[in-house]
């Protein structure tokens, strides 16, 4: 859909909820495919490291940084396109691209081939979440968005289970390369389904009061102006920083946890996946659904209460996240993981939902992309490389092992407290910024 071209009217069923929920389910599956790709690489990372004879920092560069550098740099311009053109087309095309390159990752036989495949996956994945969350904001009204985006976050639980448990079993049975092949084909099918059955809604159509006619689509903004506006919003920036540091803490730790379990307790990739997979699917889903229900309550209509809840949970769960790596008892580590894993999911939906409410309609995809840029630099560049470098440094000449990796993870674990502070700091100005966004006001 190009500038000036007629925008499709919302489907007739959008008011009844059928079309809304259909789109929400499909986009949640796209999110699941995104996360599954991240988790399959961490599940088999130790196998890749041994097969290609890499150090911890080397395998972190190959599996995380290669994807992230292009994901985060391409994400902003792709989000700008999503604020101007058809989000449906961008989502389906991006999914097709990264699914095909996931298959090529499994077919790679050298470091260079896999590096190029992961770069391509990162480019493709940059077109997933920003246009998805922007589109969902035009299928759900402001009061519904935190709950709807929390349901969307269920895709991360499903994807993590697929990438940890299912992919781990495939790797044990057929080798690590086949785990990537098993993820590519479903993504291609899903891309076609989205292109053929999802319609593009009018931007900002759900921002008008229920009884009022839909307002004309808001004017588009240059990318530089959208970024300048966001940088001046204190609560919005604290919200975005809170999400980024939570990703550094939670997803950064989980990036290395399958490898740590394999080294510390002598497990295979499949056995580590059997431990972590159900935690993501069961505990993560329960936490996400419970959060969605909680977000629909009148008590949580005040965004400050949502932020206080997020700050409190992250601060409390920082303690067991530390003891996962401190203990030498697998049973204790499992118990702490059952507490830690749900906390990685509950904040996603509320964060996206609040973000969609504190920025004007014409810059939502850009705001989401900037948030993801910050989060993915944290959890795909800084965290993997930091842990890998510290592990290699501690191991010195004898090679990275469980002990060196444990030290690096223990240093990373306390960053959860830093994330909690940002959520708390965002409570100060969140109401004013939300009101300004909903009213359509943009600061020059």
Automatic annotation (TrEMBL):
Keywords: Membrane, Transmembrane, Transmembrane helix, Transport. PROSITE patterns: MFS. It is a multi-pass membrane protein. It is found in: Membrane. Its main location: membrane. The chain crosses the membrane at residues 21-41, 61-82, 94-116, 179-198, 235-255, 275-294, 306-326, 332-355, 367-387, 407-426. InterPro entries: MFS, MFS_dom, MFS_spinster-like, MFS_trans_sf. The keyword Transmembrane applies. This is Spinster family MFS transporter.
């Amino acid at each position: 859909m190009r500038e000036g071209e007629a925008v499709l009217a919302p489907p007739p069923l959008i008011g009844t909820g059928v079309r809304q929920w259909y789109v929400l389910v499909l986009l949640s599956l796209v999110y699941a495919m995104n996360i599954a790709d991240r988790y399959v690489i961490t599940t088999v990372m130790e196998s890749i490291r041994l097969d290609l004879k890499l150090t911890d920092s080397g395998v972190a560069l190959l599996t995380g940084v290669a994807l992230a550098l292009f994901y985060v740099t391409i994400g902003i311009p792709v989000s700008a396109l999503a604020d101007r053109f058809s989000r449906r087309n961008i989502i389906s095309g991006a999914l097709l691209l990264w699914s095909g390159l996931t298959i090529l990752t499994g077919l790679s036989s050298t470091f260079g081939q896999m590096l190029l495949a992961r770069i391509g996956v990162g480019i493709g994945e940059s077109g997933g979440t920003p246009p998805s969350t922007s589109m969902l904001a035009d299928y759900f009204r402001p009061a519904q968005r935190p709950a709807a985006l929390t349901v969307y976050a269920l895709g991360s639980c499903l994807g993590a289970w697929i990438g940890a448990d299912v992919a781990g079993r495939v790797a044990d049975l057929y080798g690590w390369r086949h785990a990537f092949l098993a993820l590519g084909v479903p993504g291609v099918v899903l891309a076609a389904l989205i292109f053929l059955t999802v319609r593009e809604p009018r931007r900002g159509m759900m921002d008008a009061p229920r009884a009022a006619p839909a307002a004309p689509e808001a004017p588009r903004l240059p990318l530089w102006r959208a970024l300048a506006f966001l940088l001046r919003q204190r609560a919005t920036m604290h919200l975005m920083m809170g999400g980024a540091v939570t990703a550094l803490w939670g997803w950064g730790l989980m990036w290395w946890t399958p490898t740590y379990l394999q080294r510390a307790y002598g497990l295979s990739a499949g056995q580590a996946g059997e431990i972590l997979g159900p935690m993501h699917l069961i505990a993560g889903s329960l936490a996400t659904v419970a959060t969605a229900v909680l977000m629909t309550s009148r008590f949580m209509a005040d965004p400050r209460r949502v932020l206080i809840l997020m700050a409190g949970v992250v601060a409390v769960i920082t303690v067991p996240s530390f003891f996962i790596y401190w203990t030498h008892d697998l049973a204790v580590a499992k118990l702490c993981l059952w507490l830690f894993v749900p906390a990685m999911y509950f904040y996603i939906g509320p964060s996206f939902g609040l973000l969609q409410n504190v920025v004007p309609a014409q810059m939502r995809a850009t705001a989401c992309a900037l948030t993801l840029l910050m989060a993915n630099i944290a959890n795909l560049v800084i965290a993997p490389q930091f842990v890998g470098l510290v592990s290699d440094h501690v191991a010195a000449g004898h090679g990275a092992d469980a002990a060196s990796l444990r030290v690096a993870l223990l240093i990373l674990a306390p960053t959860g407290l830093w994330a909690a502070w940002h959520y708390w700091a965002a409570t100060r100005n969140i109401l004013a910024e939300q009101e300004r966004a909903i009213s359509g006001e943009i600061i020059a």
